[in-house]
TrEMBL record, chain A:
Two distinct, membrane-bound, FAD-containing enzymes are responsible for the catalysis of fumarate and succinate interconversion; the fumarate reductase is used in anaerobic growth, and the succinate dehydrogenase is used in aerobic growth. It comes from Parahaliea maris. This is Succinate dehydrogenase iron-sulfur subunit. It catalyses: a quinone + succinate = fumarate + a quinol. One of its GO terms (molecular function) is electron transfer activity.
From TrEMBL, chain B:
One of its GO terms (cellular component) is plasma membrane. SUPFAM superfamilies: Fumarate reductase respiratory complex transmembrane subunits. Keywords: Cell inner membrane, Cell membrane, Electron transport, Heme, Iron, Membrane, Metal-binding, Transmembrane, Transmembrane helix, Transport, Tricarboxylic acid cycle. The keyword Hydrolase does not apply. It comes from Parahaliea maris. Membrane-anchoring subunit of succinate dehydrogenase (SDH). Pathway: Carbohydrate metabolism; tricarboxylic acid cycle. It comes from the Bacteria. The gene is sdhD. Its cofactor is heme. This is Succinate dehydrogenase hydrophobic membrane anchor subunit. The heme is bound between the two transmembrane subunits. Its main location: membrane. Heme binds at H69.
Length: 234, 120
């Protein structure tokens, strides 16, 4: 029997959070963590978590499993369970709404700051703004982000300064538009980032790289932003 | 854009660059000192070493690097852990007080260092 321990907290009725233990029979199958949660929820319907696509595309079920952030739907038990124990907690650093559901407002506020949309005030061409295959290739490893918040909530700099440090997810998206050949707001974007917090609170510990379920590299993107800032500075 | 008035260079980029450059200078200085200490030193050889102008200049460069490095580093630590968000207004008071203490300490060490290098 797999020992599953789940973080429970209902701010309306509980004074403080607690861990609830379950014995779970995997029947020898290598289930995904989300499957375990679904089956436990069938027993105890009060267990609360977010989920949607169950295939690692929507980014809803970012959770902390045995101390490491990831998407429950694409994390097999064989990858995360050690010593027959599975501890499931909400993403660290964000306020808990209930059980495994966190309030992502601070995360989205930082995402909003980087203006994650294409800016180009030149007259639009008749068909579309073309991009060479080489320029398009620069966006690989950036556009795939699903905003699950696994990276930012594993980052100590984001834990301490979620209101000032943009965080790995926001910065990856920031670089996605800085690197886009069709975007003309590069200077304005960079000017907004040159303070001691927005980008430079990153100390390069690479927790973000370690947990990203899509295998992306925010630390590398942050390095590119830093170089862009450096080359435009005098 | 987040404003900051107590950071070393007021700009994240400048602080980052100063932190790297001062780090390299400090590394070079500590290697230099280690190389001299490893073979054993006595008063005469140590005094002769520091009698050379370039050693004094190099030492002052290391002291100033340490000052900048400490300022930037401690500022980063304080602004991580002692904030209004985490501790309320106590955080602001504690942070600014400690920053001031660190700055005064750094200033004293710099002046004292100059006195040691050129005073004897």
């Amino acid at each position: 029997m797999l020992k599953v321990s789940i973080y429970r907290y209902n701010p309306e009725t509980d004074d403080k959070p607690r861990m609830q233990d379950f014995d779970f029979d995997t029947q020898g199958k290598d289930l995904m963590v989300l499957d375990v949660l679904e089956q436990l929820k069938a027993e105890d319907t009060t267990i609360t978590y977010r989920r949607s696509c169950r295939e690692g595309v929507c980014g809803s079920d970012g959770l902390n499993m045995n101390g490491k952030n990831g998407l429950a739907c694409i994390t097999p038990l064989s990858e995360t369970v050690k010593g027959n124990k599975l501890v499931i907690r909400p993403l660290p650093g964000l306020p808990v709404v209930r059980d495994l559901v966190v309030d992502m407002s601070m995360f989205y506020a930082q995402y909003e700051k980087v203006q994650p949309y294409l800016q180009n005030n030149t007259p639009a061409p008749a068909i579309e703004r073309l991009q060479s295959p080489e320029d398009r290739a620069k966006l690989d490893g950036l556009y795939e982000c699903i905003l699950c918040a696994c990276c930012s909530t594993s980052c100590p700099s984001f834990w301490w300064n979620p209101d000032r440090f943009i965080g790995p997810a926001g910065l990856l998206q920031s670089y996605r538009f800085l690197a886009d050949s069709r975007d003309t707001a590069t200077d304005e974007r960079l000017a907004k980032l040159d303070d001691p917090f927005s980008v430079f609170r990153c100390h390069g510990i690479q927790n973000c790289v370690n947990v990203c379920p899509k295998g992306l590299n925010p630390t590398k993107a942050i390095g590119h932003i830093r170089n862009m800032l450096l080359s435009r500075a005098t | 854009m987040v404003t900051a008035v107590t950071s070393f260079g007021r700009s994240g980029l400048s602080d980052w660059l100063v932190q790297r450059v001062s780090g390299v200078i400090l590394l070079a200085y500590f290697i230099f000192i280690a190389c001299n200490v490893i073979n054993g030193v006595d008063y005469v050889s140590w005094k002769a070493l520091y009698a050379q102008t370039w050693v004094k200049v190099f030492s002052l460069m290391a002291i100033l690097s340490l000052a900048a490095h400490a300022w930037i580093g401690m500022w980063a630590v304080f602004t991580d852990y002692l904030t209004e968000r985490l501790m309320g207004s106590t955080g602001n008071f504690l942070r600014v007080t400690l920053q001031l203490l660190v700055l005064v300490t750094i200033f004293i060490y710099v002046v004292w260092g100059v006195q040691i290098l050129w005073g004897y």
